Give the backbone structure.
Amino acid sequence: MQSCRPELFKGCDIIFSGLDTAKAQEVELAFARLYPVFSNASAYRMDPLTPLVVPTVNLAHMSLIPAQRQHLKSEGKGFLVTNSNWYNSTPP
């Protein structure tokens, strides 16, 4: 079993995280300081500096990334974006 640490993923351009919420909360911000991270976990969905993006609905939330990078002291290209838990392809 290998640890889930950012330094073990050198050479990656993007991280797609499918970790469960507890593990995601533990490791995704460490990754976000170095890499663009797209998360499926709910750990950061309510964080005011984490864009919650449904691309066809609110792509403008990506504008939060510069403020998030500053807050995380990101090393250049890193950030964390979450998706909603709404998977229906048509609005209610």
User: Anything to note?
Assistant: Residues 3 and 27 are 10 Å apart (CA to CA). The first helix runs from residue 21 to 32.
